[in-house]
């Protein structure tokens, strides 16, 4: 967060209590009720969570609720046997939800489909049988690289059903990112599509996968979903390795009993950025994640049988896992899935979808809201948004101006807004208003969810008003660690305060009402349009280029994206820092990560500002990039660098 943004947030004093009409119908109706339940969840977590777990289906009940004998490796519901896919689908088949729409799908070109819970169940069973026919079983890793078509949630649920570990790779990642993830997780199957649609263009996904898996000996098969595109695009099928999903599915039964899995069997891996050049495979297991996403979805989104719920996140990110698939489907919600871009064929597409399907709960990212604001009020104003009753945001702190716009233009001043704070690692929402209870303040994620005991601390562990966010005790949805690197898990999340608290990596402030305001990352992770990118990832890519000597990448405030990246690069002697090199470096980032990770700007400079001990002063680079007065530069080894850097920066501006 820039200083200016921080000032706006600190000055924010408006409060928006929920209407009594909303509260009277909500699952949780009053602050007293919330406080009593929260207190109970902290004082007696085992009692609290076992009651929640009892609302779900178990093949066999657990022996212990929480095993905390080996911190930070906490285990939940040990001895229990369950299946999250069963709880998302089979559990609903005996009652009225059987014929209720589970997925309402809309493709970017305007094609659409509706699947009831019974139909989705059949599809998932058939998909699971296809996986089995390819030799995939419990514990095997399956990489999924699909556009937002119905087969994406179906593939995810099919893996869960047979106990295979899904590893979804967002379809904006490059071939090399696929390769890294497939190799790190040793996936034996990759599921993809021939292509997908994005902003009117064909994404040639199969071609990208082919380049990615070329050198991956672990991959035995590639399963290809046909998107149904008439236009020509490049792709090929490799004999013996590649199979059309629809051909294999045609011969399969739609009966496939859900595997009876151990509570701590792995459910999925999802790679996310950290402070090193190498993304980490965050692990989640069946039961704890299941119980936590079930309850957070129910209470934070106040899900009711008649709701039409739309989370605009891609399944390639954690939000799509927890709040497009697992959370809402355990609650038998009707979930809208949209394939494409918000501005295709025009800037009103999202609002047309809200009107068309009578969406009642809408969950999106602040970066999208800021883009809508810029595109103009006329687009939402043209549509009937009266079906909406609740709005949500996720991914970064929302600036009060965007919050108010969302509240007025989209919510018609009647919908509560839940600003939900959480991470890939937390599995589900950990800070959020409850919509029928919490008076909201624009820009604050407000109060902890049940089972979450947050504190704002100094580096030394003292409680303070503004400092670093921590969480004091384990909760069921938390990660079980980093695939293949549990030392890194301990170091990253548990070392800061001697193992006593979980360290999410965000700065925070607690106000006089106990509300928490997230102030942004305190490590070298940047949230670009709500997507995490480690600055070290770009830095390690740049130095692979023969003309680059050194680089420092920083996050700077960005009007739409929240944060953008600026790369400061020094070139080796005899090389030129020019337009051609800029393009080459951008191409390298697109090739190694994906286009979405390209910086706003590359600034070439003869040197970088360093302390006498050789540490790059990033704070100073941020000041330069955001045009701030520079403070004391006397600790620099060579203070004259700053002037030349400012010159370089202003030249390109
Ligand atoms: C940021 C996304 C402020 C935060 C679910 C966190 C937020 C990172 C919020 C996790 C919010 C997410 N307010 N900041 N409501 N939600 N963040 O793993 O910096 O992609 O650490 O999970 O996003 O990003 P991730």
Q: What integer value in Å does the Rg equal?
A: 24 Å
Unreliable sequence segments: none
- Return the CATH architecture of the largest domain: 3-Layer(aba) Sandwich
Share of residues in strands: 15-25%
Overall shape? globular
Head-to-tail CA distance between termini: 21 Å
Q: Strand sequence of the main sheet, in spatial order? A: 12-11-8-6-7-14-15-23
What is the count of helical runs? 21
The level 1 CATH classification of the largest domain is Alpha Beta
Largest sheet: 8 strands, mixed
CATH fold name of the largest domain:
Rossmann fold
In total, the number of strands is 30
Please give the domain count. Answer: 2
- Which class of secondary structure composition applies to the elements? alpha/beta
**Mean of pLDDT:** 96
Helix content: 25-40%
Bound molecules: 5'-O-[(S)-ethoxy(hydroxy)phosphoryl]adenosine
Provide the CATH superfamily of the largest domain.
ANL, N-terminal domain
Explain what the structure shows.
The chain is α/β, with parallel strands linked by helices and 653 residues long. The protein has 2 domains: 3-471, Rossmann fold (3-Layer(aba) Sandwich); 525-651, ANL, C-terminal domain (GMP Synthetase, Chain A, domain 3, 2-Layer Sandwich), CATH 3.30.300. The chain contains 21 helices and 30 strands. The chain has an 8-stranded mixed sheet with strand order 12-11-8-6-7-14-15-23, sandwiched between helices. The chain has a 7-stranded mixed sheet with strand order 5-4-17-16-18-19-20, sandwiched between helices. Strands 21-22-24-25 form a 4-stranded antiparallel sheet, with no helix packed on it. A hairpin with a 2-residue loop joins β9 (196-198) and β10. α6 crosses α7, α11 packs across α12 (318-330) and α14 packs across α16 (400-410). 5'-O-[(S)-ethoxy(hydroxy)phosphoryl]adenosine binds at residues 272, 317-319, 394-397, 419-424, 445, 504-506, 518, 521, 527, 532.
